[in-house]
Amino acid sequence: MPYCEINAIDLYYYYKATKRGINCRALAIMLNEMYLSLGFKSRYVTCLPEDAGDSDCHVINSVYSETLKKWIWMDPTFNAYLKDENNNLLSIMDVREKIINGSPIILNEDANWNNRQSWNKKQYIDSYMAKNLFWLECPASSSFNIESPYRSSSATYIALVPDGFKPWNSSKNTSDVNYFWGGW
Question: What predicted TM-score, i.e. pTM, was given to this entire model?
Answer without folding.
Answer: 0.89
